[in-house]
Structures are given as structure tokens and as C-alpha cells.
Design goal:
CATH topology of one domain: Methylamine Dehydrogenase, Chain H
Radius of gyration: 27 Å
CATH architecture of one domain: 7 Propeller
Structural class: mainly beta
Helix content: under 10%
Strand order of the largest sheet: 2-1-7-6-5-4
Length: 623
């Protein structure tokens, strides 16, 4: 073959890929391209993972968004579905990622998928099906992923198989589908609501969703069966040989002799008014259930026992091996062996509430239970601290020094960190609640809090002193940002925006905040000030006037930062990440990260932090 022929064939292949990309979201699984890692995702090698979006192998800790995990290591994993061939061969999905586990470690196989996945089911030939948004069905055939075109537009939330190649999948708008001999067929139900669970017994196939009743297909007709529960049923499984359904308000019902009857629930139920059971697994005569909160309940046939999983806020997946080992995933990942739970993610870490960047490489992070971390190079090292309270703010005027504020029942504290240790400058002050700290240098910084607290650093006395303020004791301030020594902003509850000028602190009543709770504040200059808060609220001050900026989300914006006027980033308590490009906000990541509390930009670098010790780093494009 001549070089010209080769070039023409390669050009034709690229054109075919481009055409397919325009017509379907899953071209990488329909066109075999030897140059794409999606053709052989297990061959990326140690420390790397195949990115669907780029079709290239990339570091496991990074995603196509450019966000890379720095803590915890290995990265925090929040599986939405778990299924295993055995205790040493498991598959998991984490929103837009697919993972595999050998029973001790979890390794990403494919990331940056264009649709979220919700359920996994195994086939008799060793294959595995993954289902999710917009009718997505991926088939792992042992070597690569192949997309199955079923003509489904509904989002699929659940899947079940009887052990053969017959698979049932349920989803949005009452959707129910059956797969036989590789072909999918739609089955009509009497529901137009989302179906969240599907399971079968010798009496037929059952689906549960936004109702207290279940729909049953007995092989010839479909019927509706009532349960004694008052709320929606969300999960299905087995208790012994009988079908078990669980749902809202921790209600449990089992099907005995063709009739649904109440099943005695655990005596130590959570007190969460919005709590529920949603996942069920069983093995060797033992049944496991969980939901919100993610405590794990075990039924041995006569008695319920509870296992507390401290970092599991919501459980969304549960799988039990034939040998009795249990895996539970959701906002975290645990494995239960011999009735003892162990966290599979990296070592437990406390929530990070605040970040401060002295340089692009040297940062400080503080959080729950006196946590203080310092980044030097690429490593986050714990710093010894005298404070044991929750630490809500940190300001680092230089790479070797940081000032930290905290608060607990005993009162508020101020510490100075240097020489790998943090010492209390101001011991607990009862009745005062500090919430944030920021400044322009080691001698000029401010601390704000609830009850109208506005204090400034007095370098001569090496102590905080009350600053001149007209805000009043009812002002509840959540964040502060110093543009320079003569202009400082703060935001708080009830839509309060305050600024400090030469005459002291006053409220800026021109800000169009309504009564939002404002948590986020950042500025690149006096003509580029950003604030954010509940219900996705964001506003911008251009030096002359304020304007509301639409974000497209309803999350609570917890922090804003950036690298310049056309590169502004926001994070939310729901784990979303947004970027403003000078024209509008775009969602960078959603429903893929834990709670995010802080974000800071420095010299083109961005750092994000939040629950479970999460710290992410985004380098400038050139790096």
C-alpha cells in the first residue's frame, strides 16, 4: 500500500468517525478504531485509565474536565451501582465512570462517559450490561464495550436477570424492557412515573417506583399489587425465598402466599424525617438493606442488627457475594466481611471547609475536628494544631505562615500556623462565632462572623480588635474578601452585602440579593466582584452597578474564585462545578463529586475542596 493510499484510508476512517459522532453519542463503541483506547480499555497500563471523551489513556486521578484528585489518594469513589461475578471480580459505576475491582482495590476502566449509568447486571456468558441515561445500554463482551441500540429514550434506573440471557430493565415514565437473545422489547405498564427497582421470582417479574403498589407481570398479564406501606416503594430483593420491597419512611413489606404483608423493621431506625430504604441484597440466608442515611441493616432470618457507616450519607448500591461478603456504595464505598465494615476508599479524612493559596504550589487547607493540611510540591501534609474545633477559615499571607479561625461550643479561636505547627493566638471566646478570614498581607486581615462580628488584626498588639462597623449585631456574615487595604467586602444571611471603606463597614443596599443566604465571595478587582448563595444565585459588580447572573442550577453556591474576569469558577454544596467564561456560566461537573465547600485560584491554578477530605487541582491549560 502506498503512503497516499494509507493516508486516504485513514482520512476515510476519521470522516466515518466524525459522521457517526454527529448522529450518536456512542460512536466509540460502534466503530472499531485501533487508535482509540475504547477498543482496548484494559490495556492503558498501570496508573492510567481510558477516557471516552478523548479516546486516550490518561492518569487515573484526572478527568477530561482537567480536575485531578490530590486528596484522598487514591481518589474518592462514590459508586451508584455494584455487581459482581464473584467476591474477587466486581464491576461498579460512578456516575460517568466504570470501575472494576479484584476485591481489595478498585481500578477505573473507562471515564468521561457522555451519559450517567445507574445499574449493572451480569449475563450467563460472562458478559456484563450497564444501563443508564437516555436508554444507554453498554455490553462488556470480555474485551471491549459495545453499545446496544435498543431504540430506548427513557432513562434506565434498574436491571435484573434470572441467571440466563433474559434481562429486565426499568426506568423513567413507567418504562419497562425485556432483553432476550440480545434483542430488547418494550413492555407496557400501568405507570407513567419513574420505576426504580425490578426483580423476579417464580411468581413473575415485579417493578417498584413512585407508588406504594407494585406492578407484576405473571407471564401473561400485568396487574397492580398493593402493599401495606403508605409511601413509594424504592427497592426490591429477597428475604429468604420471599420477595421483599422497601421504601419511604423505612417501610418494609414482603410477599407471602401471594399477599403483601408488613415486615417487622429494625428497632433502631434512623430519625431522619426524609429517610428511606432503597437498596436490598441477600446471600446465604442473610438479607441486607440500606438507603438514607446509609447505615447498613442485616437480617439473619429472625433478628435485625445495624452496622454504622459514618461517612455514608446515602446508599444507592448494595451487592452480596455468594460467600456473604457485602459491598455497599453511594456517597462512599464500604466492604463488609465477617460482619465488620471497612472503608474501601482511601483512609478516612475529615471535611475541608476552607483553602488559601500563598503561591500556586503552596496552599493551606483547614476543616473538621482541627484538621490543618499544607501543600508543598504535590503532597498534602497534616500540620499539628492546638485547636480541636471545626476550622472554618484560613488565610495564608506567605508560604510558611497561615492564620486559622475556628468555632465550637466553647467559642471561637484564632491560630497562627508556622514551622509545621499551629498555636492558639486567641483562646476560645464564648458567645462569638467566627466564620471567615481574609486579608492582603500578614499585618492586614479581617475576621467576620455571626452577631455582627467584624474584627481586624492589630499588628502592634498581635491580636484581633473590633473594627468600626455600622452593620449592627443582627448581621450574620459568612464570608469576607479583601481587595486591598482600603476596600473589603463581606456577605451573609438575608442577602447582606457589606463593604469596608475609609469610614468603616456599611451595608451595600444596591446589591440585588433579595433574602438569599450568601456564602460565596471573590473579586479580581474593585470592578470585578462576585457573590453567590442559595438557589443557584450569583451576582456581579462591575464597578458601577450590580447585576444578577444566571447559573442554570438551583444548588447552593458555597464558594467562588477564579483566575480573571473571564475565568470565574463556582462550587456548590451539592457537588457541582461551574465556570463563567465572560459570557455565561457552564456546568463543568454535576452529581459526580461530594459536597464542595471551598475553591481558590492562584496564577492560573485552581483548587477545590470539600467533604471526605476531597481536594482537586486544575492546572493552567498550558500545563
Amino acid at each position: 500500500m502506498s503512503l497516499g493510499d494509507f493516508s486516504m484510508r485513514r482520512l476515510a476512517l476519521l470522516f466515518a468517525l466524525a459522521v457517526t459522532s454527529c448522529t450518536t453519542a456512542w460512536d466509540a463503541f460502534r466503530v472499531v478504531n485501533g487508535d482509540a483506547c475504547t477498543t482496548h480499555p484494559l490495556d492503558c497500563g498501570s496508573g492510567k485509565v481510558c477516557s471516552y471523551e478523548s479516546r486516550q489513556c490518561q492518569p487515573q486521578s484526572c478527568r477530561q474536565t482537567g480536575l485531578c484528585w490530590e486528596s484522598p489518594r487514591p481518589q474518592l469513589f462514590q459508586p451508584q451501582a455494584i455487581w459482581g461475578q464473584s467476591a474477587t471480580d466486581l464491576w461498579m459505576v460512578g456516575s460517568r465512570d466504570i470501575y472494576r475491582s479484584n476485591g481489595s482495590t478498585v481500578t477505573p476502566v473507562l471515564t468521561d462517559l457522555p451519559a450517567r449509568l445507574h445499574a449493572i447486571v451480569g449475563l450467563s456468558d460472562g458478559g456484563v450490561l450497564f444501563v443508564g441515561e437516555r436508554g444507554t445500554i453498554l455490553h462488556w463482551n470480555g474485551q471491549r464495550f459495545v453499545s446496544e441500540d435498543a431504540g430506548i429514550s427513557a432513562t434506565l434506573y434498574a436491571a435484573w436477570t434470572d441467571g440466563s440471557d433474559t434481562v429486565w430493565a426499568a426506568g423513567s415514565d413507567g418504562a419497562l424492557y425485556r432483553r432476550e437473545a440480545g434483542s430488547w422489547t418494550s413492555w407496557a405498564t400501568d405507570s407513567s412515573s419513574a420505576l426504580r427497582a425490578v426483580h423476579g421470582t417464580s411468581d413473575g417479574v415485579f417493578v417498584a417506583g413512585s407508588s406504594s403498589a407494585l406492578w407484576r407481570w405473571d407471564g401473561s398479564v400485568g396487574t397492580r399489587e398493593a402493599t401495606p406501606c403508605g409511601g413509594s416503594m424504592l427497592g426490591l430483593g429477597l428475604v429468604g425465598s420471599e420477595l421483599l420491597s422497601v421504601g419511604e419512611s423505612y417501610c418494609m413489606a414482603k410477599r407471602s402466599g401471594g399477599t403483601w404483608v408488613s415486615m417487622t423493621a429494625p428497632s433502631m431506625l434512623p430519625t431522619d424525617k426524609n429517610g428511606y430504604f432503597s437498596v436490598v441484597a441477600s446471600s446465604s440466608g442473610t438479607t441486607w438493606v440500606s438507603g438514607r442515611p446509609g447505615n447498613l441493616f442485616r437480617f439473619d432470618g429472625s433478628t435485625w442488627t445495624q452496622l454504622e457507616l459514618k461517612t455514608m450519607e446515602i446508599a444507592s448500591s448494595l451487592w452480596a457475594s455468594p460467600g456473604g461478603e457485602v459491598w455497599i456504595g453511594g456517597t462512599d464505598l464500604y466492604k463488609v466481611s465477617s460482619s465488620l465494615p471497612s472503608r474501601v476508599n482511601a483512609r478516612p479524612q475529615e471535611a475541608i471547609y476552607s483553602l488559601s493559596a500563598a503561591t500556586a504550589e503552596t496552599l493551606w487547607a483547614v476543616g473538621f475536628a482541627g484538621t490543618v493540611l499544607r501543600r508543598s510540591g504535590t503532597t498534602w501534609e497534616p500540620i499539628r494544631s492546638e485547636a480541636t474545633s471545626a476550622l472554618y477559615g484560613v488565610y495564608s499571607p506567605s508560604d510558611e505562615v497561615a492564620y486559622v479561625i475556628g468555632f465550637d461550643a466553647a467559642g471561637s479561636t484564632l491560630s497562627m500556623c508556622a514551622n509545621r505547627a499551629c498555636s492558639l493566638i486567641e483562646k476560645p471566646r464564648a458567645g462569638i462565632e467566627y466564620s471567615a478570614i481574609h486579608g492582603v498581607d500578614a499585618n492586614t486581615f479581617w475576621v467576620v462572623g455571626k452577631g455582627g462580628v467584624v474584627r481586624t488584626w492589630n499588628a502592634k498588639n498581635a491580636a484581633l480588635a473590633d473594627d468600626t462597623s455600622m452593620l449592627g449585631s443582627s448581621a450574620a456574615l459568612n464570608q469576607v474578601f479583601a481587595i486591598d487595604s482600603s476596600l473589603v467586602y463581606a456577605v451573609g444571611e438575608q442577602g447582606l452585602v457589606a463593604l469596608r471603606e475609609a469610614s468603616g463597614w456599611r451595608a451595600d443596599t444596591s446589591a440585588p440579593t433579595g433574602r438569599q443566604s450568601l456564602q460565596a465571595l471573590w473579586a479580581s478587582s474593585s470592578a470585578d466582584v462576585w457573590i453567590g448563595g442559595t438557589n443557584g444565585f450569583a451576582a456581579h459588580f462591575d464597578g458601577a452597578s450590580w447585576s444578577v447572573v444566571q447559573t442554570g442550577i438551583s444548588d447552593s453556591i458555597s464558594a467562588i474564585s477564579g483566575t480573571g474576569p473571564s475565568d470565574v469558577w463556582a462550587v456548590t454544596l451539592q457537588g457541582s462545578v461551574l465556570r463563567y467564561d465572560g459570557q455565561r456560566f457552564v456546568i463543568v461537573s454535576q452529581s459526580e463529586l461530594p459536597r464542595l465547600h471551598s475553591i481558590v485560584g492562584k496564577d492560573g491554578h485552581l483548587y477545590l475542596a470539600g467533604a471526605l477530605g476531597t481536594i482537586l487541582h486544575k492546572s493552567p491549560p498550558s500545563q
